[in-house]
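User: Here's a chain of 513 residues. Predict its fold as tokens.
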Amino acid sequence: MHSQFWRAIAWPVLLLSASGFAQQSNSCASLTNFKAPGVEISKAAPIAAGTTEPNPWGPGHSAAIPAYCRVEGVINRRTGVGGEEFGINFALAMPEKWNGDFLMQGGGGGNGVVMAPLGLNAAGDTPALMRGFAVVSTDTGHKSHRGPFDFDFMKDEQAALDFDYLANAEVATLVKLLIAQYYGKAAAFSYFSGCSTGGREGMILSQRYPTVFNGIISGDPAMRTGLSNLAIGKWIPVALNQIAPKDAGGKPIIAQAISDADRKLIKDALLQKCDAKDGVADGMISDPLGCDFDPAALTCKEGKAESCLSPEKVAAIKKALGGPKTSEGVQVYPGFLYDTGIAATGPIRGILSPGPGIFGPATTAMEVDVEKEALAAAQPLVDSMSTNLTTFSGHGGKLIFYHGDSDPWFSPLDTFGYYKDMSAANGGLEAVSKWGQFYFVPGMSHCGGGQGLDQFDFLGAIVNWVEKGTAPASVIATGKAFPGRSRPLCPYPKHAQYKGSGDTEDANNFECR
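Assistant: Prediction complete.
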């Protein structure tokens, strides 16, 4: 019975019970004595200031952190399919100098690892823990054995359910109790911030658990992975296979479908057409919806074969970026934006640079049955598409979406389409803009990188919105791709426009228009 405690008990009862804990000792080590059905606390220890926390999956943020109480544990440990041990593992960091708020950080890929509880996502130069937030991370109920995209756990129904939507809300509820016991009072406000899988998790929380968080930041959400996989795993490769040279066995060599010269030609023409629309030619397309680039303009005239594209290549590129459609022309997943990253060759490759890291194992198929594939791609427990957010917005919840314009894995137009549908279902864009915003991020690849400015502080923006009632008018972005440059990111329907005078590297000389 105890393993179902967190799923069966009413949320208000759990949260009210936090007041009972407030009278207990607030020493870190005493939290090992915390008792609740199905909960095991394996560690509760003070961590000295100045410790560093590496990212276990490669290069990431590694900074000195303040003194904090670290609590680790597991909810609902059990033996599942194949004799494997499952359970929702978590790590909670509660700083000595607490700001009174709580942040849950989202996961990535298939989760399966407890990341350092720092709160890095969309926090600019200052992670949440360094700002005084109590921060928690979780593996959402399983362990990864084969890196960030290990989905073997899905064979276990409970593990799948935990990953799909249950685990984050359960961890958040428990952590609110631990925070109340340690500090002697409940967190004033609760936030969630994640990108990719974490972005999907944020959407799930706003839709299924609308009163758990006051503010949610959802970046580049992996919101319909079945359909996005159809787009990048089958539709785009098939389009490019049709123009690729063949090997000795007659199979297409997709990596040679588009040449380096083709990519440079396309990127140069794209920038020539759309770059300066914001008032300055700077290698960034600030208004992606206003970009009217058409590869057909590069079609070779009769007798010409250089510095142009064959009609077949033009057709394949337009088909690839247009997104999967049925034989009747019904769009089943949006197309991708014409942005600077479509020709990127690394570290995350662009759509026109098929190879390792994009499209997975390249298919050699020459056709795809979109109707059949789209039907199989539906994942109702994962696809976070519910638009009725009246409870979330009604309790004062604030929601910020952002999406990299050059994301080759999940189309920014899918997230944008959801935002438009959500707006229509909740009183229209003007009404929704009082509690929900959407930001395109020019040039950014998946959750970062690319030829764009990928450092921005949406966390500070949403805190001001939730706690002071000040909706963000813009958020300043910087990044390694353009050292010394800053730009405002603007909530839809606005974009950054140069004012016409002043340093073009300075965000102050741009406005949201």
